Amino acid sequence: DMPLETQGKILRVMIDQTFTRVGGSTRVQVDVRVISSSTRDLRRQIEDGLFREDLYHRLNVVPVRVPSLAERRDDVPLLVSHFMKQLSASSGLPMREISDEAMANLQAYNWPGNVRQLENAIERAVALGAGRETIDIVDLPREILESPQTGAMPFVDFPEDGMDMPAHLAAVEQDLIRRALDRTSGNRNRAAELLRIKRTTLVEKLRRLGSIQ
């Protein structure tokens, strides 16, 4: 977000490892390590003339891409538990539970605001669910409940004598993985993105299911 002029000043400090204080005339030597982050597409920013390409290459020595929360939905339950423990400790109230339906909606949502949005959603849910032991779907923000990704689950016929749920879920999982791989011509990275799981999770599922080529 820095103006190009300021970006140029930062670049000169990184190259020369010196700067002059405002109002001063003496060059000051510095020995620093720069760790920077951005939520912007910097390559696009460069193309649009908003970010200096020379500064980009100077900063982009050891790039680390942090996947969005939508790309690591398996982390949602861990983060929810972490935030609820924090809220319990700060408020002095007992640790709350969260219903399976509410958790399913949290995992299905795309989280455009990433982890901070999830934290705010949990804080809101805890506040609205005061006096109850379990946070339920009614305590979640409207944008989560109304999101297309968090709609009602498809109807599954439930026989009178019950059903083999593990086998049914395994069959559904296997079908979804096969369809994702078919759609991406076997590209596991892209298939994992379509399934909203980590690539390592997909590889483990493929190893476990075995029959999917």
Keywords:
213 residues, mainly alpha, two-stranded parallel ribbon, 10 helices, 5% strand
Mean pLDDT: 86
Q: How many helical stretches?
A: 10
Shape: extended
Tell me the major beta sheet.
2 strands, antiparallel
Share of β-strand residues:
under 5%
Return the string of H and E elements: HEEHHHEHHEHHHH
Helix and strand content put the structural class at: mainly alpha
Rounded to the nearest angstrom, the radius of gyration is 24 Å
The termini sit apart by 46 Å
Spans of 5+ residues with little confidence (pLDDT < 50)? none
Strand order of the largest sheet: 1-2
β-strand number: 4
What is the share of helical residues? 40-55%
Describe the structure.
The structure is a single chain. By secondary structure, the protein is mainly alpha-helical. The protein has helices at residues 4-16, 42-47, 53-59, 76-91, 100-108, 114-128, 142-145, 165-183, 188-195, 199-209, and strands at 18-20, 27-29, 97-98, 134-135. The longest helix is centred in the last third of the chain and has 19 residues, at 165-183. The chain is built from ten helices and four strands. Strand 1 and strand 2 form a beta hairpin. The strands form two sheets. A two-stranded antiparallel sheet has the order 1-2. The protein has a two-stranded parallel sheet with strand order 3-4. The chain is 51% helix and 5% strand.
Task: Describe how the helices and strands are arranged.
Layout: H1 4-16, E1 18-20, E2 27-29, H2 42-47, H3 53-59, H4 76-91, E3 97-98, H5 100-108, H6 114-128, E4 134-135, H7 142-145, H8 165-183, H9 188-195, H10 199-209
Parallel strand pairs: 3-4
Antiparallel strand pairs: 1-2
Helix pairs in contact: 4-6, 8-9, 9-10
